[in-house]
Amino acid sequence: MPAVIESLMKDVKAIDEEMKGLTKQLRALDKRKVEAENTILNVRQQFDEMDGWYKEYLSLSRNARELARNKEVEAPRKVSHGQVNKFMSRWNDDRTFRINYEISVKLNKNGSGAT
Q: What pLDDT was estimated at residue 25?
């Protein structure tokens, strides 16, 4: 009987060790999951921001065409100066904006999107 108990104790100990290893793996996977979720959230936020910039660009382009069609010269200058001031303010105040802008310029220069 003691041999059976000893054998069962070894089995319990082996199962405990296996559970410790699996728990460690689970924690690592949970950490990777959280990191992946944060990355996805960050990419979505960047996409939304870039989408907003694109929509603003389209609006400005339409306005510029309309003003050119009406031969108005001063209004585009005001819009242009306002946009430059807005851009420079973000450039000076937001490091992430600078990094994203530099990356997008590099991607556009390459044409293929590969750096």
A: 96
| Range ranked top by mean pLDDT from 13-22, 52-61, 89-98 | 13-22
* Residue (of 104, 5, 1, 4) closest to 46 by Cα position: 104
Are 76 and 68 contacting, i.e. CB atoms less than 8 angstroms apart? yes
Question: With helix as H, strand as E and coil as C, how does the chain read?
Answer: CHHHHHHHHHHHHHHHHHHHHHHHHHHHHHHHHHHHHHHHHHHHHHHHHHHHHHHHHHHHHHHHHHHHHCCCCHHHHHHHHHHHHHHHHHHHHCHHHHHHHHHHHHHHHHCCCCC
Chain-centroid distance of CA 66 in Å reads 35
What separation in angstroms does the CA of 68 have from each of 25, 54, 56, 57, 82?
Answer: 63, 21, 18, 16, 18
To which residue do tokens 């990094």 refer? 99
Q: In degrees rounded to 5, what are phi and psi of residue 54?
A: -65, -45
